[in-house]
Amino acid sequence: MDFRVIGIVAALGSAFSWAVGAILFKRLGEQISPLGLTLAKGSISAIFLAVILVLTQYEGVERKSLLLLILSGLLGISVGDTLFFAALQDLGAHALVVLSTLGEVLTILLAVFFLGERHNFTTWIGIIFVISGIAVVLQAKLTEEQQRSSFRGIILGLLSVVCMSVSIIIAKEALASISAIQATFVRMVSGTLGIFCLGITTQQLGGWIVPLRDVKLVTHLLLSVCFITFGGFWLSLVSLKYVDVSIANTLNTTDPIFVLLLAAIFLHEKITLKAVIGTILTMGGIILLIKMNIMV
To answer: Distance between CA atoms of 240 and 244, rounded to whole angstroms?
Structure first.
């Protein structure tokens, strides 16, 4: 099978997994603080991945790749996620959409300038369609009451976007000589340790883990993390390994479309005209990207 096919399918699978994960983690987020949830999610993910690595053949990792993945995990998960959660306190929903779109564009630009990725006109049109469609779908779910944002929130949000985008570029370079499952493990452990150190430094660690005394909550958490670890994190790195960052990142960000569809099917939520337009734009972009990267 063409590795590009694997990359495309993995990217869309990752997006679908994050969409399901958003629903699974909705209840958890109401009972556990954002950073506490990140720490718990990362710790459990690392354990799951460690078990898989023990059961499968472990491959040697080059020192450079190892260091790059550690840096990627610290920058993207520890710093990026922490800044994003801090920004959420001051950001309105419209600002979040703008920052999300900016993050996608920034990652693509970094891939062009630092990884030397080049695409034809049709591929660029596909990327623009997907990003525009996602932005329209997200905006369709906003309310006027959520539009205000503080300068502090915007700055923190911009910094988080930069950290996450750079971490993706760093991870792509490391994936050339390491399996996706090992890369996921190293990145996850690094990011989780960073959050753990933050909890100790700020003396908030105890408060973060208090909700985890609820056995029912922990069971729900275990099932949710298992799905996200192998569906979201691992598949996203599989896609980065086999296709260009520009393509993988664009397809990985289509999770709002899956959320929209799942909410309509299982929660019977109404789909607006703007959401339909956004979905059509996104699907058109996906078709173009698949056509140019597989059907050639």
So the answer is: 6
